[in-house]
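subagent[fold] <- orchestrator: predict structure for attached chain, return tokens only, no commentary.
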Amino acid sequence: MDIHSESNQLVTETNKQSKWWHHRRVKIIGISITVLVILAISLILILEVFIRSTKKPYSTTTTTTPPFVWRVTGSMNTPRTKHTAILLKNEKVLVAGGSDGQSCLFSSELYDPKTGNWTSTGNMSSNRCEHTMSTLMNGKIFVAGGDTSTAEIYDPSSGIWTATESMMISRLGHTTSILADGKILVAGGETNSAEIYDPLTGNWTTISSMHSERYQHIAVVLTNGKVLVAGGSKVSYECIMDSCDLYDPSTKRWTTTGKMNHRRMQHTALLLTNGKVLVSGGFDDMRKYLKSAELYDPLTETWTTTGNMSFPRAGHTASLLRNGKVLVSGGLANSLIRYSTELYDAATRIWTVANNMNRVRYFHTATELENGDVLVAGGSEDDNSAELYVSPEKTSATTSKMNSLVNGPKASVTEKALNKDGQNNTIGSNKCL
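subagent[fold] -> orchestrator:
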């Protein structure tokens, strides 16, 4: 090999080594840059976590709305249970009839939310228990039945009751529903018959009968104008039912609809803001007091179970609050009259225990006032007390003036035992057959 060839070979080798080191440096630089980027990102994340962990506590705290409370208000003039109550257009509450343990009452009285006091108003012409009360389109109050066929109208402007035409038959534990045209549908009351009252003429018209006799059932006017009737018993406490009927005002006919999941009487029902009907509590044909609840969907005409209440109860009340929740209070279960209350959230379908009332109550009334408070009255044959379910904000603003803020007894206190003849007997068999 000559000198020229050796020189060319040396140059070639030198070029190869130079390229190899160049590629090596590029790789080293690339890896170094990647490592630095990863370290920088990691450092940023660590600093962010550190900064968040050292922020002041107020940035992560959540606020909760204080629970509503029960506040004692003025007592009625007469102890009452199985009475009726309704909000008048003048913002006062009219209470009428009921039982004082000796007989059904014909007296009535007015509650004034501005003063917290009750005053007597005109007496009805008939003694009434387990009757019904409805507001007519002209603002007057219509009362019917209560172990009688009579009906009468109360005029808030004069405080006077005036008799109107009597129903076709005597009714007790029936229901009344205001139809879209202002007429009143009366159904059941230890019978399957139904009739309609026309406030313009003062006359009654018999319509087709329901498919079953019903006593202490419920009736709700649906958003489509139809009336849902559910549960109740056929004869007194015999044959407690799960069946339901629908009344269509356009055809004046009753049709059967989906059955409830439980037989019920002395239960409650409310039309929710979503158009469904919430039914809760009551007791069944084996005298089992129920804490179950279920929803009726008018679109499918079916019932679905929803969350259970914390306590079984019958003869309780259910009120739809301004926030869309349902307040359930009092009632009877297993020989105990309750003062416990709870709330149902339609959005979550969950029940939560609320503050206790100050007194035990059974077959009492619960009336939502114009300001959103709920007035609860009566519920005992020897107790004329009343109380308000109010927001803490209203309570704090009025406590110094009224000096009557009470949160109710603790849950550990024993609720009142009921020792009335015939109230706690077990039926023991299904007499629907």
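orchestrator: received. Logging for downstream: Residues 188 and 214 are 5 Å apart (CA to CA). The two ends are 123 Å apart (CA to CA).
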